[in-house]
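Q: Sequence in, structure out?
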Amino acid sequence: MTTKLMGTGVQRVEDQRFLRGLGRYADDVAVDPSTLHAAVLRSPHAHARIVDIDVADVLDVEGVHAVWTYDDLTGPMAEPLPLLIPHPMLTHGRTQYALAKDEVNYVGEAIAFVVADDRYVAEDAVGKIKVSYELLPPVVGIDAARAADRLVHDDVPGNVGARMEQNTGDVQAAMAAAPHRLTLDLTVERSACMPMEGRGTVARWDPDIDRLQVWSSTQTSTGVRAVVAVKLGLDLRQVDVITPDVGGGFGVKINHPWPEELLVPLAARTLGRTVKFTEDRREHFISTAHERGQVQYIEVGFDDDGRLLALDVKFWHDHGAYTPYGLIVPIITSTQLLGPYKPEVYRVVFESLYTNTVMVTPYRGAGRPQGCFAMERTMDAIAAELGKDRTEVRAVNFIQPDEFPFEQGLVFQDGRELTYDSGDYPASLEKIKALIGWDEFPAFRAEMAAEGRQVGIGLACYVEGTGVGPYEGAHVHVETSGKVKVATGLTTQGQGHATVFAQLVADELGCRFEDVEVVTGDTRRMPYAVGTFASRAAVMSGSAIHLAAKRAKEKALKIAAEALEASPDDLQIVDGVVSVKGSPGSSIDLGTVAVLSNPLRYAFDEASKAATQFTVGDPGKPPVAEDEEPGLEGTDFYSPERSTFASGMHAVIVETDPLTAEIRILKYAVVHDCGKLINPMIVEGQIHGGVAQGVGGALYERMVYDESGQLLNASFMDFLMPYVTEVPDGIDIDHLETPSPLNPLGIKGAGEAGVIPSAAVFASAIEDAESIPITAMPISPSELFHLRLTHAEETP
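A: Exactly. Output:
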């Protein structure tokens, strides 16, 4: 038997194509030389009533083919965009229109859409559109939203889109009885993901067959397909959505449809020409989506050992001007906040608030970094109050290995009870302490102090709900050449899906890894799917691919058994060859089995001769059995009963400069448990990328609005991101594998783990270095410098 590939660090098969410049992104889609290009007029105001739009000067511009404003939209296109994830607590959900109707509610909102011969002409034409506005007072930031002396939407009282509460008991009574109590006021500021590739959409209408083809840089090709069909009044069968290579998603591309994903197909169908839209960088800043912004208030009661007796959390979530993605982000914050701990009583209340800023949808971590920040700052505060080691306080609150499955008594984002499936948090803690050198750190601190250097160490723990439903599917097809074609509707944005999915197929089917080709995100190949988000690709599509490969294998063994005159139970498939166990001379390759699986009337090549009606099977039997279909293939779907929960712990040692307050990373360590590993190298790559993104979120990246709702740093000159010089040179990583019982592979997700604890772990380390409470993230050197001054003034 060949060595199993699951658990092996197989080199990524995708990389050579990308490294050679052969990637094909939405902007590379060159359907025909007569392609038209689109540009969008966007609001320069955060809050204003549209009095008049004059497009007269545009229509005479040479090269302009069409201009749309809201008044040109009809039917479903004139209705608000979908509220994708309704929730009973989202009592005042609001979504925007494809083009603004009557009012704009953030800088960057789409107002008019121009299609021209090229982008230059389209942009010039956009500049000729005249819009008259009546300015309205904007609401910017959580404090202004809570004050509610002005409203984003006139019909939303207090700017409150939703209020939600969950509890596991009488928190007031438990708090009153606790020997110790603390309160914390915390803030996490707005940030956003910045994929290398922005949004892009290309569409072509074929009038001869009444069919629309759309290429979109999306995380959900099937979702885009469905909404395009509904909004344009087409049958699903009339719409194909193909996701080409995607240069990063990180959550922003799971929201759908963006206005352009509807307007481009509308224009293509109306004009009978291929139409393309490619977003520029400023558009991405001001018109896609942000995340993170929350204000948190925490009250905690605990005993002499630091055990959590009562935890009461209130937070206010800034969801921007609209709520297309519902309450997913604050729900995740409220439930994942608990991490690996088990407070005796927990209550959480949040309000999700409207502001005149860009809407909020999930960004890598999706509410978990905020929850982790709240919980881990609380743990550090308890340790400081009791004079205990921070690891001791965490250890006393851990869910123990023998307590799984563990029910937290809450409802998670998938509408299911929050039940952790597996884990071993004490073992993770011992591993992270060893990796970072926790027990040796006091000696290191003294050594650094002797040199006039100031260092601190931090720790943060987290749990991540992954593999959220409802389902994913897969199709595995063995061709007569012996090549294996695999399709799943879930999209890919660089995670290595073509490699890990091929590993799973090779293991289960018994073919060669090199013979497997994986296609993702193409509704022509797999029309039923959900999308890539919430660290779900390996769990969902991986499980579906495993099951589909199993079906194909069962069929292959059945067909080969007849050809070899053996029992299927006596057969094996190794490197694409079916043979009798213990008798390798009696064999047949998978390509030949594929030929035999499809009885033919006509021979069109040498291989097909073996599958014609006079050469296949017993003349007394039908060519295709009643319970089979022609072709050597298998299709299956995986739908979990609930999410599976990965976990991990990060630790960091930082140095803070006594003069400049610069923060330098000296050592970073990660322990991660995502169940059974498919490809350790790819998991570690995901962790490295997540840590880099987490460094940015903790120390650099924020969206800065002024009081009028103008985004002040909407460029890479002003929005700071870490360079390679700011990311740790080496990250020490160790894995723990506690298999999940919820799927056939025992796996959990890994994609978002690297970013979740970053704000918390850096806050812990900086506070340890400075002996100054760190209550807001991200933190810059200038902010740390001013914190020092304030602390010095307040300290007697």
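The radius of gyration is 28 Å.
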